[in-house]
Amino acid sequence: MDQKFLDVMKHEGVVTIVTINAQPAHVVNTWASYVKVTDKKLLIPAAGMHSIEQDFAADNHVTVAVGSKEVEGTQGPGAGFHVHGTGKFVDAGDDFDEMKAKFPWLSRVLEIEIDDIEQRI
């Protein structure tokens, strides 16, 4: 896991989740402070995100965009990343229970298995 990416995730900001198989692409947002980062996954509480969930029936590839102006990037202040991976929604299990305890309003957890993390800025 890239340390600069982890540093970006420590700062509050918008996290954008995009599926590209729909026409047009579906885009949803959440907050960085809601996202749990593990060695291989992102865990994101979901109350809505129904368009993303419907897209997964055809193709569960997803891109997540995150950034912070508080972290030094490639061109000066501000670093941003694209996370590519595959997603699924879970509504039971240890990860769900842990996230539900922190975010009682969630109905599911978006679990993204990370394929790669690419620094963009």
TrEMBL record:
Record domain Pyridoxamine 5'-phosphate oxidase N-terminal: where: 1-102
Gene3D superfamilies to which the protein is assigned, alphabetical: Electron Transport, Fmn-binding Protein, Chain A (2.30.110.10)
SUPFAM superfamilies: FMN-binding split barrel
Entry-linked Pfam families: PNPOx_N (PF01243)
Protein name in UniProt: Flavin mononucleotide-binding protein
Organism, as annotated: Lentilactobacillus farraginis DSM 18382 = JCM 14108
Phylogenetic lineage: Bacteria, Bacillati, Bacillota, Bacilli, Lactobacillales
